[in-house]
Write a structure and sequence with these properties.
Elements: H1 6-9, H2 15-28, E1 34-35, H3 47-58, H4 71-85, E2 94-97, H5 100-111, E3 117-122, H6 127-134, E4 138-143, H7 154-160, E5 165-171, H8 183-195, E6 200-204, H9 220-223, E7 231-236, E8 249-252, H10 255-266, H11 274-285, H12 290-310, E9 325-326, H13 347-358, E10 360-361, E11 363-364, E12 374-377, H14 382-398
Bound molecules: 4'-deoxy-4'-aminopyridoxal-5'-phosphate and glutamic acid (GLU).
Amino acid sequence: MALLSQAVRRIKPSPTIAMTTRAAEMKAAGRDVIGLAAGEPDFDTPDHIKEAAIAAIRRGETKYTPVHGTKALREAICAKFRRENGIAYTSDEIAVCGGGKQVLFNAILATVDPGDEVLIPAPYWVSYPDIVMLAGGAPIAMPTTAEMGFKIGPVQLQRAITPRTKWLILNSPANPTGAAYTRDELAGLAKVLLRNPKVWVMVDDIYEHLTYDGFQFASLAQVEPALKSRTLTINGVSKAYSMTGWRVGYAGGPIDLIKAMANVQSQSTTHTSSISQAAAVAALNGPMEFLTGWRKSFAERRDFVVDRLNAIPGLTCKKPQGAFYVYPSCQGAIGKKTQQGKTIANDSDFVTYLLEAEGVAVVQGAAFGVEPYFRISYATSMKALEEACARIARVCAALK
Ligand code: PMP
Ligand code: GLU
C-alpha cells in the first residue's frame, strides 16, 4: 500500500499478541480453546495495589505527571534497584514508560541509526528485532540451542561484536525459554563487554522475581559495576505484580540516555497513566510475600508440564530456571502427516494443526528465531494445563 512507510513495512504485528487474539476470537465464537499463548501471569493484581490506585483517583491524581513519572515513583524505583539489585541510581537516572516494551522502544529509537547492529541472543522475545528494524537498525540474532541451555557464552559474544555493534540485549530469565544466567555466566559476558567499550547493554530483568529451585537472580550492572555507565537496566511491574494491563515499565541508566528517552516519550505518549503510577509505587514499596505462593504455584506447573511433554513421543523439553514459559522441541513431529494428509513442515504448521485439531493455542518457535520449537505459557490453571497436555499428546499420536 502506497500509504505505508518504509519503516512500518519492515515490521509485523507481535506474533504472541496475534496468537493470543486469535485464541480469544475462537473462544468468543464458541470453540473450546485452551490459551497457552499469552505472556502474562494468571493471578489478579494484589488488593493493596488496587486500593492505592483507587485512593489516587480519590485524591485527584488525575492530571499530567512529569514525562518519566512522579517523584514518588522514581524514588520507589531507586529504592528497589538499591534494595534488590545493589545498583545505585539517582532519580534523574530513572525512566518510567508505558510498559517495559516502551522502555525498549524509546531506548532503541533514541540511539539506533540505520545500519547500527543490535545483538540479540535467540530464541528472543518477539519484539526486540522488530523494534530495532523500525528504527532502521540491524538485529543480529545469536542462535543458541537447548544443549547450550539457550544461553550465549563469552566466545560467541566476542565473535558477534563488530565495529557497528551498538547494543547487546540480554534477557534473563528469558522469554520464551525461561533460561536464566547465573552470576558467573554474567561475569563471563561482562569480561568480553569490558574489552569492547563501544558496546552498550540493554538488560531486560522483567522476569527477575520468577525463578525456581533456589536460583539466585543477578543483574549485569550489579555483577560488573564498571558496566553501569553503558547499561540500561530494564524492569517493570507487569510480571512480578501481575500488572500487565496497568502499563508501567521502568529503567535505570546513564542520564544522557534517560534524557534522550524522555525526548522520544514527550513527543508520543507523554507519560504512563497517573493512576498506574500510584499503583506502581504501592507495588514497589509494598509487601512481596504473595510472591512466595506465586512462585510455588508456577514451579509446580512447570514441573508438571515438562514431565508431561517429555512423555510425548516427538517432543523434548528442558526444565528452565525462570519466567513462566517452556520451549519444547517438536523436531519429532516435523515431516509427519496429519490425518487430513497435510505434512507438518515446520513449527508454524505444528502450532496451526494443534490449534485447529484440538483447540490448544501456543506460539510457533519461528516467531522467536529458533526452530523447530514452540512456546507454552504455563501461567494458567493446573486443570487447563492437564487438559492441554492431554490434547497435545493426542495430536502428536495422530501424526503418521
Ligand atoms: N520483556 C520481555 C522479555 C517480555 O516478555 C515482556 C512481556 N511481554 C516485556 C519485556 C514487556 O512487558 P510490559 O510491556 O508489559 O512491561
Ligand atoms: N511479552 C508477552 C509475550 O511474550 C506479552 C505479549 C507481547 O507483549 O508481545 O507473550
